[in-house]
Amino acid sequence: MDGARLKQATEDLLRRVDGLRQTVCSQLIGQEALVDDLLVGLLAGGHILLEGLPGLGKTLLVRLLGRGLGLDWSRIQFTPDLMPSDVTGTLVVDERDGHRSFRFQQGPIFAGLVLADEINRATPKTQSALLEAMQEGSVTVAGTSHRLPVPFHVVATQNPIELEGTYPLPEAQLDRFLFKLEVKTPSVDAMVRILEATTGQPSPEIRPMLTAAELLSLQLLVRQVLCASHLVRFVAELVHATHPDGSDVDERTKRFVRYGASARAGQAVVLAAKARALLSGRAAVTQQDVEASVVAALRHRVLLAFEADAEGIQVANLVDGWVQRAHRLAKR
Questions:
Q1: Top-level CATH class of 10-194?
Q2: Which terminus of the chain has fewer CB atoms gathered within 10 Å of its CB, N or C?
Q3: Does the structure show a pLDDT above 70 at 114?
């Protein structure tokens, strides 16, 4: 395909993604920023962790996006008694013509978009069943590896206020998520529109606007978006600024941070910035694209100290200091 035809095909795909965004926003009222960030994360090829109170539309959002993106969609309700085989699948006895054999029965993880609902309610053993799937795109059962669909994404949810009977995700598993997004309570005006829309006629079913192959082609295009060397250095300085034992670290970081972010956080920022640029129809990343992706990429990767928890300090409260330091050092 020549350059002109490729450009036209890309513009057509982006128009359909924008149409999907508008359709989802019309049904998930008051969550426009969340929809944008989730689309960015999916186009960047990552997994997403959603944190928010019940009843804010997390399940509806994932279902709408799954249908609109042309992906097979499945939901796993995580509970304390859920077993790893309930997620990955298991071997079953298959009897045909008097002969018995073992056959692999796929679990709900075999879908293009998987909603892991209330993931922190499952035991660590079951949570770990997602690790290979999220990182390697495959699951291993009885010594045999089974490939998952491509593209493959996990969107997990958790309730931030319920602690009884929950198992916090370990840092190694949190790091598998490209973004951690907070689902905010809608404003009063948005709530009025939600109540009017959800107590009247049901909304029409969303139709697929992309195919899985087209989504994969967009994800490949994301990696071709240019990111200038000074922006890459800015991201590297930003990640380094999150470490309390680094050089030239501000006092708030030393006081409130136990462990800083890894290189995977920098990869997440750059990929998300490239996805934002592509969604805006640009072939190169801007500083705004980078900074818009920082909080969601670092929120779950920077481990705060007990003092931060006592004073109500969150990662978002520290980001401005890290950005300013990264600006200063990246210009050297």
A1: alpha beta
A2: C
A3: yes
What is the C-alpha separation between 303 and 311, in angstroms, rounded? 15
Query: Beta-carbon neighbour count of residue 298 at 10 Å?
Result: 25
Same fold, 10-194 and 223-332: no
Fold annotation for 223-332: Helicase, Ruva Protein; domain 3 (1.10.8)
- pLDDT score for 1: 47
Alpha-carbon span 283 to 4, nearest angstrom: 14
Distance CA 256, CA 254 (A): 6
Among 163-167, 214-218, 305-309, whose mean pLDDT is lowest?
163-167
CB atoms within 10 A of CB 85: 14
Please report, as a single letter, which amino acid is at residue 224. Answer: Q
H or E element, residue 221: helix 212-222
Compute the average pLDDT of residues 284-313: 91
Where are the domains positioned within the chain? 10-194, 223-332
Q: Give this prediction's pTM.
A: 0.89
